[in-house]
Amino acid sequence: MTRTGLMTLPQHHIGVDVSKNWIDTFTASSQQFTRIANQGLSLAEWAAGLGDVTVIFEATSRYDHDLRARLDEVGIPYVRMNPLRAGQFARAAGFLAKTGRLDARILCMMGEALRPEPTMPMQPVRQRLYDLQARREDIVAMIIAEQGRLSTANDTFICRDLKASIRSLTRRRDALQKQIDAPVETNRQLAAQYRQLQSAPGVGPQVACRLMASMPELGHVDRRQIASLAGLAPHARESGLYKGKRTIHGGRSHVRRAMYMAALVAVRWDHHWKTVYLHMREGGKAAKTAIIAVARRLLVRINAMVRNGLSYQA
Predict the structure, then answer these.
(1) CA 44 to chain centre
(2) pTM of the entire structure?
(3) Same domain for 303 and 210
(4) pLDDT tens per residue, range 261-277
(5) Is residue 99 part of a domain?
(6) CB–CB of 77/2 below 8 Å?
(7) In a domain, 180, yes or no
(8) Measured at the alpha carbon of residue 224, what is the angle toward residues 1 and 196, in degrees to the nearest 5?
(9) What is the pLDDT of residues 194-241, one digit of tens each?
(10) For residue 134, how far is the Cα from the chain centroid?
(11) Which side of the chain, N or C, has fewer Cβ within a 10 Å radius?
(12) Where are the alpha helices (DSSP H) in the chain?
């Protein structure tokens, strides 16, 4: 679907290569390059004069944050492209060099040739939830690393230092958790979805927050699309008489990890999902493959829940 669910796609695309200090753009209609400072005011002025176009750029972690915000403000549709797909398109088109201007042109060509669906815009409250979750996960990783060092440390001073570091990191983790909980408790829409998501087996507070922050498409796309976005869709490997094992790859790794943990809990404590898991194991599937399959099916059910505005029903 499109960003509004109704509008038709604009005729032309603008390819944008995003870097820390500036963006390089290439416009299909005029065949012109421009360079703009990657900061709020410059991006706002540029976005305001775009007209009927779709902007396409690679996902670049934090560097495209201002660009997305300014495009959302003026209602310009954009495609946040997986860098792997963009690189594959460039190689298929015969481009081996890499510069900002060239990347912008390739992205523009990709948009014109493939006409990808625009990315769902991220609400500011969900963007903040995403940022807070990402920082919390960073802190948790630091705690785990420090605990690992403590387990092998022998020096008394180093042990004290590591314990102090763990206590400090734990306080910071808890402070971040309070910041995550605040919008979930005060925003009516988020609070309702938070409760709805946790009605599904295996979905606790952390998984629910991860889905709300990282999957704005929930309830807006079909079962195949939602599985693919999460990197849970199996991809065939067949050629002639050869039939290889289907594998998963790509997608949003943090969502995939969250759903994998939800599936582990579901197959242990929920009768339905435990039965599904055991049936696949009896059919010869490896344990991890069966868990991934449960994670995919569970996400599909959650997607249908959100689309229909219902809680989980066994």
Answers:
(1) 25
(2) 0.81
(3) yes
(4) 999 999 999 999 999 99
(5) yes
(6) yes
(7) yes
(8) 80
(9) 999 999 999 999 999 999 999 989 999 999 999 999 999 888 887 887
(10) 11
(11) C
(12) 40-48, 65-74, 83-92, 100-114, 124-152, 156-186, 188-198, 205-214, 223-229, 253-269, 271-282, 287-308
